[in-house]
Design brief:
By secondary structure, the chain is α+β, with helices and mostly antiparallel strands. The chain folds into two domains: 336 residues, 3-Layer(bba) Sandwich (FAD/NAD(P)-binding domain), CATH 3.50.50; 94 residues, Alpha-Beta Complex (Outer Surface Protein A, domain 3), CATH 3.90.930.50. 35% of the residues lie in helices and 25% in strands. It is built from 17 helices and 27 strands. Strands 3, 4, 5, 11, 12, 13, 14, 15 and 27 form a nine-stranded mixed sheet that branches. Strands 1, 2, 6, 7, 8, 9 and 17 form a seven-stranded mixed sheet that branches. A three-stranded antiparallel sheet has the order 10-16-18, covered by helices on one side. Strand 22 and strand 23 form a beta hairpin. Helix 1 crosses helix 2. The protein is globular, with a radius of gyration of 24 Å. It starts with a strand and ends with a helix.
Length: 566
């Protein structure tokens, strides 16, 4: 019998992030990580988003990951929608990215970028770091049986004997060891059923090099699917094909044949691989989206892809995994120290993770509906809205998506599926044509409306501590009483003119970035009904519009266009 405070199934990014942060904030806690494979091992899911950097820094592993010299992700280049033009979606203007000598510290522009990682190397760095931080890591140790009764885990059987713990966590990815053993069901909110095939190529060219080590992921739409091209080292690339499962079945070809045919047919990708050699087999999986209907029990939790999966078009997988594991670490540390009400924390964890995954699924569905090559998918988002009792067109449904998504658990900004509200409006405008509208622009008088709202307490996670914060809830709408949200709610207790609001935001949010965030927060509050707007004749409305191109979303101007033409 081997007894621990926390037993984690799976040594991938979910398990290693969780274990590392538990040991950081509760050094005396005993943590075991049970991993059925021996690292390093290949794994798909190489493209990251900027939020991960702050978590790597908190884990104390940033310098080790940076020393691996992974390509720095500035953003992505897409051929998508109803045009064959190439568009860049960037975290910061690529033309301005300089980059420090590597390995670089987590500061300056590196806080706004991400990595494109070779998972065999990345995952081993994280797991070895968890071991160095004090976790007991057992590789080549699969869980052969889960002993449970009435929803309570009593032990995990392994070839080395039984492991027991106060708390058990399923971070086993698609294997979902605990989830399946407990019979937890999943919801598949999208009808979009894709399959993915991928392989790795050595001596591949980068489509573009920006500053010192910076580049972009490439996503190219085909008539029946899309291809990703992700540089994961100076010469190595991950190249994958995503397509509807029905299309795959109808082609009646082997995965290898479908994959190579697609790679060779895409002009840009094939040129990047013209001197490259395919290494290893073509891997395949179904990758359709799902959400577990239960993510926490009396003494167990789900984390990472065991809890849910969103279509990879937005590269959200690792971000959801690291973020969820970080917050679960805070929760388990609090449990072990006998802090807050465990059921309150478990409920918050479950609701938050489910909401995040569903947001990414909804936004991915919208992304597909906006692609002219996926015309058979055009009704996905409106069907999602229909489930909520609304009859909306796809573009109207996207506006509805915003009403439930922009004020969420990230209280610093108004965003959905990692896209800030302003960027989301620009995407809608780009994909749907016409002009994206702001509710702010319709009015010149604004006043907070908090009637009928009830105060609700929620946890916030900071420096190893769980802070109790207040929000207002009215139906499904939640208003955080922190930051710009709180300041605007207080300022707008009395009706204010558009000029007064603009002046207040200029003083409260003095930099261009914080001012833009203030506008987005106010727009989210108007759309969600926390601020009422009206228009009085003879006075100017709020002057705001969405540009068709910006510094971070714009038509591609670098070497990619030249390669497409040549």
């Amino acid at each position: 019998m081997h007894n621990f405070d926390v037993a984690i199934i799976g040594g991938g990014p979910a398990g290693s992030t969780l274990g590392t942060l538990i040991k950081k904030y509760a050094p005396n806690a005993s943590v075991v990580i049970l991993e059925r494979e021996q690292f390093p091992r290949e794994h798909v899911g190489e493209s990251q988003l900027p939020l991960i950097g702050s978590i790597l820094e908190e884990m104390g592993v940033w310098e080790k990951v940076e020393a691996a010299n992974f390509p720095i992700k500035i953003g992505a280049t897409y051929r998508w929608g109803q045009t064959d033009d190439l568009w860049d979606f960037e975290f910061l203007p690529g033309k301005d990215f300089v980059g420090s000598e590597r390995p670089a510290k987590y500061e300056g522009e590196r806080r706004k970028t991400a990595f494109q990682v070779e998972r065999s190397i990345y995952d081993k760095i994280l797991l070895d770091h968890a071991r160095e931080c004090g976790c007991e890591v057992r590789e080549n140790t699969g869980v052969t049986q889960v002993r449970h009764q009435d929803g309570v885990i009593n032990g995990l059987m392994t070839p080395e004997g039984e492991v027991t713990a106060k708390y058990y966590v399923d971070g086993s990815g698609n294997s979902a060891i605990l989830r399946r053993a407990l019979g937890v069901t999943v919801d598949e909110p999208s009808r979009l059923k894709n399959v993915a095939f991928w392989s790795y190529w050595d001596d591949a060219e980068w489509a573009v090099t920006l500053g010192k080590g910076g580049t972009r992921v490439n996503v190219m739409s085909l008539g029946y699917g899309w291809i990703w091209f992700i540089p994961i080292s100076a010469t190595r690339a991950s190249v994958g094909l995503v397509m509807p499962a029905e299309v795959y079945k109808n082609k009646k070809l082997r995965p290898e044949e479908i994959y190579l045919e697609a790679v060779q047919s895409e002009a840009l990708i094939s040129k990047l691989l013209r001197q490259a050699t395919q290494q290893g087999p073509v891997h395949g999986t179904k990758d359709w989206s799902f959400v577990a209907n239960q993510m926490a029990g009396p003494n167990w939790y789900l984390v990472g892809e065991a809890a849910g999966f969103a279509d990879p078009i937005l590269a959200a997988g690792l971000t959801l995994t690291h973020t969820g594991a970080r917050e679960l670490a805070y929760i388990l540390v609090d449990h072990l120290k006998g802090g807050n009400d465990p059921s309150w924390l478990a409920s918050h964890y479950e609701v938050t993770q489910q909401k995040r995954i569903r947001q990414h699924i909804r936004f991915a569905d919208y992304w597909y509906t906006a692609n002219g090559h996926f015309s058979e998918l055009k009704e996905f988002v409106s069907e999602i809205a229909k489930d909520a009792g609304l009859e909306l067109s796809p573009n109207e449904a996207f506006q509805w998506l915003g009403t439930g998504g922009f004020i969420n658990d990230d209280w610093r900004v108004a965003r959905v599926a990692t896209f800030a509200l302003g960027a989301t409006k620009q995407l809608t405008q780009f994909f749907g044509g016409g002009e994206a509208t702001w509710e702010l622009s319709k009015y010149n008088r604004f006043k907070a409306d908090l009637s009928g709202a009830e105060i609700e307490t929620v946890p916030a996670f900071h420096n190893g501590q769980i802070l109790v914060k207040q929000t207002l809830r009215r139906g499904d709408q939640v208003l955080p009483l922190v930051g710009v949200y709180q300041r605007l709610a207080e300022f707008l207790q009395s009706e204010r003119t558009a000029e007064e609001v603009r002046g207040y935001l200029a003083s409260a949010c003095p930099s261009p970035a914080t001012y833009t965030n203030g506008l987005e927060v106010l727009e989210a509050m108007v759309v969600s009904g926390w601020v009422l707007g009206r228009s009085q004749s003879g006075h100017p409305n709020f002057p705001i519009a969405t540009p068709h191109q910006s510094e971070v979303i714009h038509q591609n101007q670098d070497r990619l266009e030249e390669m497409m033409i040549s």
